[in-house]
DNA sequence: GATATCTCTAGGCACATCCTATGGACATCC
DNA sequence: GGATGTCCATAGGATGTGCCTAGAGATATC
């Protein structure tokens, strides 16, 4: 057991998916696979149930996660013990409001770990060095590095009658109180349907929307990553396939800070699946 | 930075000596050397001042040690999280009373780490599977695996006039109140000289002896390892070179428990310096 | 002057890690 | 129903890192 394996473990725990975890760790999927296998052998317990659509943490994994998390944090802190906060470049990153906090913070690790960078996180409409946004929000002069894509799902109160259905159609949602998310980047899309009726509430943030759902006020259509970690909320797929592609956007014209350039390079190397011409390391 | 490097670091910190640390980690000295160098480069600070007779921890090392220690402990705890205490063999180890606790406990790590072993530590006169003793205490039917050898030194109150001397002769100690350690394995030796005069105190344990020294009651002659960690006690070499060889002793006749056999094997592989015929791994 | 101790460097070997490629098992889509 | 996409596991090959031996250099000790 070493810290590297613990990092891989927490990534898998967070993503519930070996392939996705591999991407956030900037390694290939088999590396994650063998690391988890080794860890399970060493601990003498099963950490994840593999099923066809990702993996599910066992009770052991839950238990192990808290201690793994602590060890990693302490190791990171130890590494920074003697680093002076000298000569830091400020990197301003715009985050769209509907991002999954845990996943995003994990993604930004390579930046926060650098002692020469002071990271500033702001809204995505402000003046930024780069933005993490949905592809639909991309401006003309921006490059886009895809990070992940995620579907929209319906979040409903666990006791709601519609939880009995495996999948929700637009017809199902016709006469049901809905919770609007005023900040949603897809609001133009949802707007059409929503305009036909009164919305039950207009949420100012994702947290707020989820709380309203949990309280039984209504149903919300939210990105999968947002609903995933929330308790007291049932999740059902919706029939209309709406997806968003989340990625890093940066202005093509302006020069990129060194730290950000490294970061983008890292992202591109791993995320861009080489289809015909492989762009590997050392290029 | 990985846990392995942290282990090496704590070993060096404890032993104040790369070579000795290498032995307690069961690796060669260059491995330790490069690990420390790497760690220093990564942290951006000097951890040890190298001088010709070992190394001295810097203030950074003091600081880093507490956090390194915690990370290692947590990692060890994590490893044992899911191990049941099932089917443990009890290994009874006799420790002579004058052992340096920190060093000895570190030495026994390979045994305490095993989930199939319950370690019992007792006095070295009781019925044991093996004993950690001075070579002078070896019985006829016992094998001896040397661990380290250490000199006896004089421990004196910091304000004592004799602290002005770099080295103490027997003459210096002739008319000085001495503290006897009744349990000392060398008592036969010291006895001769001590018998000529009244001793200022007879200490029941090393801790007690050191406390008496610190209190200014008198001077004690103790193994180097005992005096090293104690504050308020000055240490001076003595002119007569008395050494003790500490090692693991086990009865040649009785069969050895598996865990103990592994342990002895490990010790022998590393401690026994190959002089002409090297007995390396995989043998 | 011989010996012992302690650290560092050099060169070589072996294992660990990582990669790509591929296969099997399901879902999903047209 | 076949094509496609997703996801995990395995195999085989490249690479890198850790570890070892050997020996040099420096300094105490006998």
Automatic annotation (TrEMBL), chains A, B:
Q: Which residues form a coiled coil?
A: none
- Domain HTH lysR-type as annotated: residue spans: 1-58
Domain of life the protein comes from: Bacteria
For this UniProt record, the keywords arranged alphabetically read as follows: Activator, DNA-binding, Transcription, Transcription regulation
Pfam assignment, any one: HTH_1
Q: Which InterPro entries match?
A: LysR_HTH_N, LysR_subst-bd, WH-like_DNA-bd_sf, WH_DNA-bd_sf
Q: Which SUPFAM superfamilies match?
A: Periplasmic binding protein-like II, Winged helix' DNA-binding domain
Write out the similarity annotation: Belongs to the LysR transcriptional regulatory family.
State the protein's purpose. NodD regulates the expression of the nodABCFE genes which encode other nodulation proteins. NodD is also a negative regulator of its own expression. Binds flavonoids as inducers.
| This protein's name | LysR family transcriptional regulator
- The source organism is Bradyrhizobium zhengyangense
State the organism's lineage. Answer: Bacteria, Pseudomonadati, Pseudomonadota, Alphaproteobacteria, Hyphomicrobiales
């Amino acid at each position: 057991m070493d810290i590297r394996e613990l990092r891989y473990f927490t990534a898998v725990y967070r993503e519930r998916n070996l392939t996705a975890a591999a991407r956030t760790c900037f390694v290939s999927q088999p590396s994650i696979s063998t690391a988890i296998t080794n860890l399970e052998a060493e601990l003498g317990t099963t950490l994840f149930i593999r099923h066809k659509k990702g993996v599910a943490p066992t009770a052991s994994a839950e238990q192990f996660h808290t201690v793994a998390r602590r060890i990693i944090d302490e190791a990171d802190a130890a590494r920074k013990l003697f680093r002076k906060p000298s000569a830091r470049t400020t990197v301003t990153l715009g985050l769209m409001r509907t991002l999954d906090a845990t996943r995003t913070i994990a993604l930004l690790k390579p930046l926060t770990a650098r002692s020469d960078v002071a990271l500033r996180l702001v809204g995505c409409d402000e003046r930024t060095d780069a933005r993490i946004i949905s592809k639909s929000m991309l401006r003309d002069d921006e490059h886009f590095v895809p990070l992940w894509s995620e579907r929209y799902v319906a979040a409903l109160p666990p006791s709601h009658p519609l939880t009995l259905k495996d999948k929700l159609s637009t017809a199902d949602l016709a006469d049901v109180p809905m919770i609007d998310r005023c900040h949603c980047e897809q609001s133009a899309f949802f707007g059409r349907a929503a305009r036909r009726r009164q919305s039950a509430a207009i949420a100012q943030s994702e947290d707020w929307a989820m709380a309203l759902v949990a309280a039984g006020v209504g149903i919300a259509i939210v990105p999968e990553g947002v609903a995933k970690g929330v308790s007291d909320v049932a999740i059902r797929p919706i029939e209309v396939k709406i997806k968003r592609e989340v990625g890093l956007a940066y202005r093509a014209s302006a020069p990129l800070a060194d730290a950000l350039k490294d970061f983008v390079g890292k992202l591109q190397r791993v995320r861009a699946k080489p289809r015909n011409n492989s762009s590997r390391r050392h290029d």
